[in-house]
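Private note to self, pasted from the team thread so I don't lose it. Backbone tokens:
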């Protein structure tokens, strides 16, 4: 799955969906705030998730509803295969910030990782509803459909091994899924803020 200014790694389980690694915009904040998140992003890029989580938790102790910090926490959980915790974080973000497509996108990746493809599709559709210009969600939705097509064609070939047409379709669907996704590095915390992204109380 893919996303606007945010990074987009895919996961081995589905090999089809990309997740946004980091990059939600941060509203203007105190230097300590920026330092914690900038440090966390650098640590995530290096794969030092334990220290990154310490920085994020330090920020959340002061601003528990801050979108960027919570998003980074979900990313850390995702990267360390703590799927239930990541799902909980991103689900809460979709409730607090329904206008932001990125948490829906990451939920879809997590659901696809668990082969919960219907849930993944619904999450992607919510991402598109939140932002109809969000190209990453469309790409990920296409990847999801390609994955499901591959599974259906594989079952058809299993039932009718002599069908050259079905084998050709299976090969085509599998070709669509061959490109491995590469993690995209976290975006800077200096990106322009989204509307009220760090202040749910203002809504």
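Design output:
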């Amino acid at each position: 799955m893919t996303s606007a200014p945010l990074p987009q790694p895919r996961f081995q389980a589905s090999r089809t969906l990309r997740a946004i690694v980091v990059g939600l915009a941060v509203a203007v904040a105190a230097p300590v705030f920026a330092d914690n998140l900038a440090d966390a992003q650098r640590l995530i890029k290096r794969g030092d998730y334990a220290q990154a989580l310490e920085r994020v938790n330090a920020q959340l102790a002061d601003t528990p509803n801050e979108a960027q910090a919570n998003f980074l926490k979900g990313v850390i959980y995702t990267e360390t295969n703590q799927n239930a915790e990541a799902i909980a974080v991103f689900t809460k973000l979709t409730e607090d910030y329904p206008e932001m497509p990125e948490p829906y996108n990451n939920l879809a990746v997590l659901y696809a990782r668990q082969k919960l493809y219907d849930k993944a599709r619904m999450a992607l559709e919510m991402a598109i509803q939140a932002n109809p210009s969000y190209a990453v969600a469309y790409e990920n939705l296409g990847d999801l459909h390609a994955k499901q097509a591959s599974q259906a064609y594989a079952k058809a070939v299993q039932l009718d091994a002599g069908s050259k047409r079905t084998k050709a379709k299976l090969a085509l669907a599998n070709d669509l899924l061959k490109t491995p996704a590469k993690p995209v590095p976290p975006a800077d915390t200096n990106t322009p803020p989204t509307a009220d992204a760090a202040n749910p109380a203002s809504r």
